[in-house]
Amino acid sequence: MKRPIPVASASAFIDEKIKELGDWRGKTLAKVRTIIHQADPEIVEEWKWMGTPVFSHGGIVCTGETYKSVVKMTFAKGAALKDPSGLFNSSLEGNVRRAIDIREGDKVDGAALKDLIRAAVALNLKGKSKPKPKRKSPL
Questions:
Q1: Which residues make beta-bridge pairs with 44?
Q2: Whole-model pTM?
Q3: Is 135 among the domain residues?
Q4: 29 occurs within a structural domain
Q5: Which residues contact 98 (CB under 8 A, 6 or more apart)?
Q6: β-bridge pairing 65-66 and 60-63
């Protein structure tokens, strides 16, 4: 089993990825990263799956993947989140995940994204706070 990358190193890897991209994708990833931390200062940055920035608090909140024509924020439990602003525009057919594809020139609704991040964190923490009920013995 691979050992997790220390948080400080994960943040440094994300910094390097943003710098390496050097175009609109790097700027967009940096912007959503800032919004994520504004929404929840306790977010932990991780580096998983051969180079994917992951933002967690009580479990995975979202990823920050970069592709040729899109920056994709995939929310691990997105299907369970209310999205009144209609940010989710990708992976809509799945039972669990939802994603936001941000293309070059797209405007990011920071307030709506913060609300979505906070809701995802709350959902993660809700699952962590309830102790599992003990099963009664059949006797």
A1: 56
A2: 0.84
A3: no
A4: yes
A5: 74, 75, 78, 79, 81, 83, 88, 90, 91, 92
A6: unpaired
- Asked if residue 10 lies in contact with residue 52, where contact means CB atoms within 8 angstroms, the answer is no
CATH number at residue 96: 3.90.1150.200
Alpha-carbon gap, residue 42 to 38, rounded angstroms: 9
Nearest alpha-carbon partner for 43 in 5, 1, 91, 10: 10
Is 68 a domain residue?
yes
Residue entry with tokens 């943003």? 18
Distance, in Å, from the CA atom of 56 to the CA atom of 96, rounded to the nearest integer, reads 16
Amino acid identity of 49?
Answer: W
Q: Look at residue 128 in the predicted model and tell me its pLDDT.
A: 66
Name the residue range of residue 38's domain: 7-123
User: Is residue 3 scored above 70 in pLDDT?
Assistant: no
How many domains does one find in the chain? 1
> Hey, what are 25's tokens?
């994708």
For residue 139, the model assigns a pLDDT of 56
24 token code pair = 């609109």
pLDDT tens for 109-139 read 999 999 999 999 999 999 665 555 556 655 5
